[in-house]
Design a protein that fits this description.
The complex is a heterodimer of chains A (about 140) and B (about 500).
Chain A lengths: L2 H9 L6 H12 L4 H11 L3 H10 L12 E5 L2 H5 L2 H12 L4 E5 L11 E3 L2 E3 L4 H10 L1
Parallel strand pairs in A: 1-2
Antiparallel strand pairs in A: 1-3, 3-4
Helix pairs in contact in A: 1-2, 3-4, 6-7
Chain B lengths: L3 E4 L2 H5 L2 H10 L4 E4 L11 E3 L2 E3 L7 H5 L6 E4 L4 H4 L17 H6 L4 H9 L1 H11 L11 H10 L6 E6 L8 H8 L1 H15 L3 E6 L4 H18 L3 E6 L9 H8 L23 E5 H11 L3 H7 L1 E2 L2 E2 L1 E8 L5 E6 L4 H8 L9 E6 L6 E2 L10 H6 L8 E6 L4 H15 L5 H4 L1 H13 L2 E2 L18 E2 H18 L3 H5 L1 H10 L7
Parallel strand pairs in B: 1-2, 6-7, 6-9, 7-8, 12-16
Antiparallel strand pairs in B: 1-3, 3-4, 4-5, 10-11, 12-13, 14-15, 14-16, 17-18
Helix pairs in contact in B: 6-10, 6-13, 7-8, 7-10, 7-14, 9-10, 9-11, 10-11, 10-13, 17-19, 17-22, 19-20, 20-22
Classes of the chains: A alpha+beta (about 140), B alpha/beta (about 500).
């Protein structure tokens, strides 16, 4: 039994199982590629187009894996009000090509921005130097 | 030696609360992790015997313990930020351990559910209607009326769906509630289920909130026997802002693209999997346990003004000195919130603009600071309360840039179903660029000889402004949901109050 069928079987009994399945596949393989889409579609008795439509709709799902570490940086209004745009140059400089910077719109720490997230760890009250450190340690 | 209490809220942790807690533990203290008081500028906040110290770092531990710390802020409950609030939904904030059933019971937990089960569906509906509770997600629809519709609808199954897709920048009350008082949400959902006859509940929680996801899952497991036979399941979103819109959320829960559905049919009649469904925001459902306690409904109803009843957890965010959660009855002015309670900007510079209600809310000018917090008053001023987030900007903000960002955000997050939003937002960013550039030259196509109807001259800045106004009108009235429909609010309010930031 392939790993994807195992994942599907974990969620098959749920109502509307597709998103939980996709989350698990994304977490395990770092992406949901065409082959995975086809297999998920077959397992859930959906068309490949239906699965691809869902995968391509949501920002959390990727078609290709990216082995680089990811640092999510909030670029929404509250973080802009607290100066995130002024330190993005530092961030890009620190990231170079080694780290992937991903814009997100709101980590829910809007009273203590600018904010970033690495994995499940959140960082608040960042300035240029602290953001640089977060990125370098990612 | 009294117990050291430190929050384990995501914001406190992001500011280093875990290190502070370990440092106290290493010094031989007993440490209890509790919910956050909501005084975010003081996090990590250490509380010992009711006395607060913050913002604390591991280096402050020695001084706090020997009483010489300069971080002392006195008795927490006497702090003006806390003493000035009327906390109903956040009554437990800072006081209880989030996953302790003992703490929850000891502070009145499950009383609402027990009474709801005694009085039965019809009486629950009556009390929720009587309380005047309106949906806290942004639309402000009376919760009791929605519940009555679901209760009266026919369907093979009924669902309670909690909208915990708190995507608005400047808001964090849902996150704080779920991390700090998760049983309150569980209880609110169980009461809603009792009222309408639902068997299953879903909490649609955004993936950007890892702490809240873990906390809600634990809470549901712990409380499962209390709410049985009703069942609740957490479903995690996948980074789409538009899924905070209720019909898009339902599609997402069903495992589809998060595209908005046309209404009617209302979700109350044909919602999740076509069944009658209550969709309410976290704060709406969490307000219910208090309302269902004996006399709670009447108490709720006397708070607030006009048709905005009860309390609203207001979130003070962005460039504001005293940032955090401030729950109070409707009727407070924006000036009081920003200047008196919030203490002005964190940077110490003058306030330039305040965005109320998230990315789709209007930018308000300090001249409008006498506006009172009330759904109708904000509506009359072409603004909205939304989810109660207030984001403050100082005088370094470029409002032209913020207006452009509003359109850009709409373009990135549009679900693509309706044209005004999908295409309008892209055209909107382009027009704002041209306004800021002072207009534009005739383009290649317009100068072609066969283009008889094209204007003969160049487009002035004023021409482009008129075009933007026209576009915003189309988006406002032609979009299917609030994303396209409300994006004009921040854009037009910025243009109206700060034309100098649009190249004038």
């Amino acid at each position: 039994m392939s790993r994807i069928s195992e994942i599907v079987s974990l969620h098959r009994e749920k109502e509307g199982p597709l998103l939980p399945v996709l989350h698990d596949v994304q977490a395990e393989f770092g992406c949901i590629d065409g082959a995975a889409e086809a297999e998920i579609a077959r397992e859930l008795n959906l068309s490949r187009a239906e699965v691809h439509g869902v995968v391509s709709f949501y920002h959390d799902f990727r078609a290709e894996a990216d082995p680089r570490p990811v640092v999510q940086i909030c670029r929404a209004e509250a973080c802009k009000a607290r100066g995130i745009e002024g330190i993005m140059a530092d961030a890009q400089d620190a990231a170079g090509s080694r780290v992937r910077l991903q814009d997100v719109y709101c980590l829910g720490l809007c009273s203590a921005g600018p904010n970033a997230r690495v994995g499940d760890t959140l960082h608040a009250r960042l300035d240029g130097a602290k953001l640089r450190e977060v990125i370098e340690r990612a | 030696m009294s117990v050291i209490r430190i929050s384990d809220d995501a914001l406190a942790r992001a500011c280093g609360a875990d290190d502070v807690a370990s440092a106290f533990a290493a010094a031989g203290c007993e440490v209890e992790r509790v919910s956050s008081w909501g005084m975010h500028w003081l996090e990590p906040l250490v509380v010992i015997g009711g006395q607060g110290f913050g913002p604390a770092s591991a280096a402050d531990v020695g001084a706090i313990l020997d009483g010489s710390s300069s971080k002392a802020i006195g008795r927490i409950e006497d702090h003006p930020f806390i003493a000035g609030q009327q906390r109903l939904t956040f009554a437990r904030a800072g006081r209880t351990r989030p996953l302790s059933l003992d703490d929850y019971e000891a502070t009145g937990g499950w009383a609402g559910l027990r009474r709801a089960r005694q009085i039965g569906g019809g009486a629950i509906l009556e009390e929720v209607v009587q309380s005047g509770l309106r949906g806290r997600g942004g639309a402000g629809f009376p919760a009791g009326i929605k519940w009555q519709t679901v209760a009266g609808a026919q369907g093979p199954r009924k669902y309670i769906v909690c909208n915990a897709d708190e995507g608005d920048s400047g808001t964090f009350a849902d996150r704080m509630l779920m991390e700090g008082d998760p049983f309150a949400l569980v209880e609110g959902m169980a009461i809603a289920a009792e009222a309408v006859g639902a068997q299953k509940g879903y909490i649609y929680l955004r993936s950007e909130y890892p702490d809240a996801i873990a906390r809600m899952q634990s809470a549901i497991t712990i409380a499962s026997s209390i709410i049985a036979p009703f069942e609740i399941e957490v479903r995690v979103g996948a980074g789409a802002y538009v899924c905070g819109e209720e019909t898009s959320l339902l599609n997402s829960l069903e495992g589809k693209r998060g595209e908005v559905r046309a209404k009617p049919p209302l979700p109350a009649l044909e919602g999740l999997f076509g069944c009658p469904t209550v969709v309410n925001n976290v704060l709406t459902l969490a307000a219910v346990p208090h309302i269902l306690t004996d006399g709670g409904s009447a108490e709720y109803q006397v708070l607030g003004i006009d048709r905005s009843k009860g309390t609203m957890p207001i979130q003070l965010a962005g460039n504001i000195r005293h940032s955090g959660l401030f729950e109070t009855a409707f009727g407070i002015t924006l000036g009081e919130l920003v200047n008196d309670i919030g203490g002005g900007t964190a940077s110490g510079r003058p306030v330039k603009a305040v965005q109320v209600g998230g990315p789709l809310g209007a930018y308000l000018h300090p001249d409008q600071f006498d506006i009172v917090f009330d759904y109708e008053a904000y509506g009359a001023a072409d603004a909205l309360i939304g989810h109660g987030g207030i984001t403050v900007f100082d005088d370094t903000a470029d409002m032209g840039e913020m207006a452009r960002f509003a359109m850009e955000f709409c373009a990135v997050e549009s679900c693509g179903k309706c044209t005004p939003c999908r295409i309008g937002a892209v055209r909107g960013t382009e027009i704002i660029d041209r306004i800021r550039a002072g207009g534009r030259q005739r383009d290649v196509i317009e100068t072609a000889p066969q283009m008889h109807n094209a204007p003969r001259g160049n487009r002035s800045r004023e021409d482009e402004v008129r075009l933007l106004e026209d576009l915003c009108e189309t988006m406002k009235f032609g979009s299917l949901c609030a994303l396209g429909g409300f994006t004009p609010y921040p854009v037009m309010s910025a243009l109206k109050h700060w034309p100098e930031d649009f190249g004038k």
